[in-house]
């Protein structure tokens, strides 16, 4: 039986409304706007996460490769590519996009 790395390299192409996202590294402890240190182990509520879009399917309309997206990582499927974890999700599971394109922005910036 041959390992995947023995053959030619195959490019991953996302299908339909699927988006491939690399989860942004955890920042560890955070600070509130008032300066209070919040340890990384604190679990007050379900927390949304930011990730970087690496690929999109041909039916994805509002997200582009290179965008940063906000989503719930607990509801997504994980896949390992070249030893690194990535998430696969539907475009409808993305809550927000951080992008330089400012057509319908909130006025808030990362």
UniProtKB/TrEMBL annotation:
The keyword Chaperone applies. Keywords: Chaperone. The keyword DNA-binding does not apply. It comes from the Bacteria. Signal peptide: none annotated. SUPFAM superfamilies: GroES-like (SSF50129). Pfam families: Cpn10. Together with the chaperonin GroEL, plays an essential role in assisting protein folding. The GroEL-GroES system forms a nano-cage that allows encapsulation of the non-native substrate proteins and provides a physical environment optimized to promote and accelerate protein folding. GroES binds to the apical surface of the GroEL ring, thereby capping the opening of the GroEL channel. Belongs to the GroES chaperonin family. Heptamer of 7 subunits arranged in a ring. This is 10 kDa chaperonin. It comes from Amycolatopsis nalaikhensis. The lineage of its organism: Bacteria, Bacillati, Actinomycetota, Actinomycetes, Pseudonocardiales.
């Amino acid at each position: 039986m041959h390992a995947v790395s023995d053959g030619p390299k195959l490019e991953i192409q996302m299908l339909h409304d699927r988006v491939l996202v690399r989860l942004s590294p955890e920042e560890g402890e955070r600070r509130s706007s008032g300066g209070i240190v919040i340890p990384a182990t604190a679990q007050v509520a379900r927390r949304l996460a930011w990730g970087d879009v690496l690929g999109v399917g041909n039916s994805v309309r509002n997200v582009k490769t290179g965008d940063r997206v906000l989503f719930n990582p607990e509801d997504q499927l994980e896949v390992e590519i070249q030893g690194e974890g990535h998430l696969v999700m539907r475009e409808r599971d993305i809550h927000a996009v951080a992008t330089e394109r400012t057509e319908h922005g909130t006025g808030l910036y990362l």
